[in-house]
């Protein structure tokens, strides 16, 4: 959708998103394509996904690192694709954190959650999905500075949502004053200090804050 063409492998089946599908390691290697959008040269690198895979093996982390090097001096944004058709679990979050760990916490300043398959929300706001999914997706969003965007799979060729996505990316790049780089590589691969475990009370407080922020965007729940 970003490049408005079909250069990437689009052999897709909804069944591939089901929880019981074990082998979802496509593509097996990074794929890079270039194009133009609204007069701007755009490079898109697709990496092997962590979503719905078993524990990410070393080759996935190596390939993701390779994908970053394909965007020299570095990517302006790291889009973390999450289809709203499936649940985002605690294991999904742990796997993603493990995949990005070699880049240190600096990488999260350049990350944005890209929700896809938005048509399956049946015109309900994506904030509804965020509230319903609970802690795991909310923690991911918090790591990304609550940056996210929604794309509908049936709106291929419509430039409006892509323009909005690019505006969000421009705002992110402006805030970061540039792209993500792996400079100071010696420090990049140092072992990170273990994060403090949040208490139940802290989780409840953060969840309530998110609910209050998005409540205005939610439609009234139908009576059961």
Summarize the structure in words.
The radius of gyration is 18 Å and the shape is globular. By secondary structure, it is α/β, with parallel strands linked by helices. It starts with about 30 loop residues before the first strand and ends in a 10-residue tail after the last helix. The model is unreliable at about 10-25 and about 185-195 (pLDDT under 50). The chain has a 3-stranded parallel beta sheet, sandwiched between helices. Strands 1-2 form a two-stranded antiparallel ribbon. Strand 3 (about 80-85), helix 2 and strand 4 (about 110-115) form a beta-alpha-beta unit. It has one domain: Rossmann fold (3-Layer(aba) Sandwich), CATH 3.40.50.300. The protein has helices at about 60-70, 90-100, 125-135, 135-145, 160-175, 185-190, 200-215, and strands at about 30-35, 40-45, 80-85, 110-115, 150. The protein is built from 7 helices and 5 strands; from the N terminus they run ββαβαβααβααα. About 35% of the residues lie in helices and about 15% in strands. The longest helix is centred in the C-terminal third of the chain and has 18 residues, at about 160-175.
């Amino acid at each position: 959708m970003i490049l408005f063409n079909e250069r990437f492998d689009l052999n897709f089946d909804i069944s591939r998103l089901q929880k019981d599908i074990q082998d979802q390691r496509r593509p097996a290697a990074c794929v890079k394509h270039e194009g133009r959008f609204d007069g701007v040269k755009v490079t898109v690198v697709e990496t092997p996904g962590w979503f719905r895979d078993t524990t990410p093996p070393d080759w996935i982390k190596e390939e993701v690192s390779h994908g970053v090097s394909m965007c020299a001096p570095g990517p302006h944004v790291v889009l973390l694709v999450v289809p709203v058709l499936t649940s985002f679990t605690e294991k999904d979050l742990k796997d993603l954190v493990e995949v990005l760990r070699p880049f240190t916490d600096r990488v999260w300043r350049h990350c944005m959650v890209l929700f896809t398959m938005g048509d399956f929300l049946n015109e309900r706001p994506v904030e509804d999905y965020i509230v319903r999914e609970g802690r795991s997706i909310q923690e991911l969003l918090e790591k990304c500075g609550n940056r996210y965007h929604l794309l509908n799979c049936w709106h291929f060729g419509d430039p409006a949502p892509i323009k909005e996505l690019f505006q969000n990316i421009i705002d992110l790049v402006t805030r970061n004053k540039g792209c993500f780089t792996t400079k100071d590589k010696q420090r990049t691969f140092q072992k990170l200090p273990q994060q403090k475990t949040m208490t139940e009370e802290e989780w409840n407080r953060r969840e309530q804050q998110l609910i209050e922020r998005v409540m205005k965007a939610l439609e009234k729940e139908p009576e059961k």
